[in-house]
Amino acid sequence: MAESAQVPTLVYLVTGGCGFLGEHIVRMLLEREPRLRELRVFDLHLSSWLEELKTGPVQVTAIQGDVTQAHEVAAAVAGSHVVIHTAGLVDVFGKASPKTIHKVNVQGTQNVIEACIRTGTQFLVYTSSMEVVGPNIKGHPFYRGNEDTPYEAVHRHPYPCSKALAEQLVLEANGRKVNGGLPLVTCALRPTGIYGEGHQVMRDFYNQGLRFGGRLFRAVPASVEHGRVYVGNVAWMHVLVARELEQRAALMGGQVYFCYDKSPYKSYEDFNMEFLGPCGLRLIGTHPLLPYWLLLLLATLNALLQWLLRPLVLYTPLLNPYTLAVANTTFTVSTNKAQRHFGYKPLFSWEESKARTIHWVQALEGSAW
Ligand SMILES: NC(=O)C1=CN([C@@H]2O[C@H](COP(=O)(O)OP(=O)(O)OC[C@H]3O[C@@H](n4cnc5c(N)ncnc54)[C@H](O)[C@@H]3O)[C@@H](O)[C@H]2O)C=CC1
Ligand SMILES: CC(C)CCC[C@@H](C)[C@H]1CC[C@H]2[C@@H]3[C@H](O)CC4=CC(=O)CC[C@]4(C)[C@H]3CC[C@]12C
């Protein structure tokens, strides 16, 4: 990869570049990668905000395409120096079938790898997930663990299964020869639960709170820690990894990195209240209002209803046995591997991450502000 501060030469491709995280990566690259000549944004659904980016100095190329279609992926990858593969089907609510989740997340990733090899693209950054590790089906806590913490990673749900398989494909591809004979250099980033501007689940919780007269009802004990990381910092980690992968190929190739920042360790709901509280919502109860066994019964009923109604309507409530288990199991990370390997420091402090997220919630349609 040729380096020059004056003449931008690099071509980057971001798959899933119109999604929640993808948009932040795209904007961050344009702001903080001075060597960029062309930025290709590949997504199933192209967003209108891409148009405004086309007026800047970097050539922004919007590519409507499907990662499950190998020829579309190969055409987009050809001629790029770095691929950031963020596209994925993020579904833990039963909106898509397990087969579709597998096809997009696993076959789609395989297509990206093969496209890099066939077209001679040498650097691949994959957005994995904390979910490839856990929480596992046994509900074992992962308390402030790092990339080397032993943990029994056993999954049954299609989403974590697909992310784990895809991550494995990416890591195993490290070192394979790409067209031209150079080695492919890959690595995987594992965000914990991402939050920030554009976060759909946060929007859902906010709207739910508004419907209940400004109240949310505690469902998870405050003592359960759930790892969260600000979207801007996750994007920054992608930009840094992409930048450093060539110089530090021997160290970083085939590695996994948790995404982390200074966001506090809290339960899923208490963490959300850091933003929803200042927007006028209250979390009712210091303990869960319903006992766990009753929540599990409701979650199971929801799963049953989803199955029964499937021929007529898609019923996809937030509460199901999987989301209940994830929200009720401690899973937090404490690591400095990204700092040691490629000098990562969070770009946004907790105070700034919080302020930006609150500002976004306040601007939502139907907001109480
Ligand atoms: N949201 C979260 O808390 C976390 C997300 N992740 C991972 O981060 C990545 C991005 O997730 P989000 O931004 O939250 O999701 P998102 O749903 O907002 O973005 C995913 C993007 O991929 C695109 N996409 C989906 N199927 C596609 C296909 N067949 N071909 C081309 N593009 C396709 C979508 O149109 C969307 O723009 C995913 O790989 C996800 O697994 C990892 C950890 C946590
Ligand atoms: C009412 C319930 C008891 C609470 C429901 C909350 C859930 C909807 C969310 C709790 C934990 C979330 C997941 C977690 O942050 C890890 C994730 C990583 C990803 O890669 C994708 C998203 C997610 C699975 C995230 C999804 C929503 C929760 C299950």
Task: Describe what you observe in this structure.
The protein is α/β, with parallel strands linked by helices. The protein has a domain at 10-201 and 227-265 and 333-349: Rossmann fold. It is built from 13 helices and 13 strands. It has helices spanning 20-32, 50-53, 70-77, 98-119, 158-173, 200-211, 231-244, 249-252, 268-276, 292-309, 321-327, 337-342, 350-362; strands spanning 10-15, 36-43, 59-64, 82-85, 123-127, 142-145, 185-191, 193-195, 215-217, 228-230, 255-259, 282-284, 331-333. A seven-stranded parallel β-sheet has the order 3-2-1-4-5-7-11, sandwiched between helices. The chain has a two-stranded parallel ribbon with strand order 6-13. A two-stranded parallel ribbon has the order 8-10. Helix 1 packs across helix 7. The longest helix has 22 residues, at 98-119. The mean pLDDT is 95. Bound molecules: 1,4-dihydronicotinamide adenine dinucleotide and ligand LDGCRDGN. The site of ligand LDGCRDGN has 16 residues, from helix 11. Residues 13-283 form the 3-beta hydroxysteroid dehydrogenase/isomerase domain. Its main location: endoplasmic reticulum. Its EC number is 1.1.1.181. Pathway: Lipid metabolism; steroid biosynthesis; Steroid biosynthesis.
Hey, roughly how much beta strand do the residues contain?
Answer: 15-25%
Integer-rounded radius of gyration: 21 Å
Q: Report the mean per-residue pLDDT as an integer.
A: 95
Major β-sheet, in short? 7 strands, parallel
What is the CATH class of the domain at 10-201 and 227-265 and 333-349? Alpha Beta
Ligands and ions found: 1,4-dihydronicotinamide adenine dinucleotide, the ligand CC(C)CCC[C@@H](C)[C@H]1CC[C@H]2[C@@H]3[C@H](O)CC4=CC(=O)CC[C@]4(C)[C@H]3CC[C@]12C
Residue windows where pLDDT falls under 50 for at least 5 positions:
none
Strand element count: 13
* H/E element order: EHEHEHEHEEHEEHEEHHEHEHHEHH
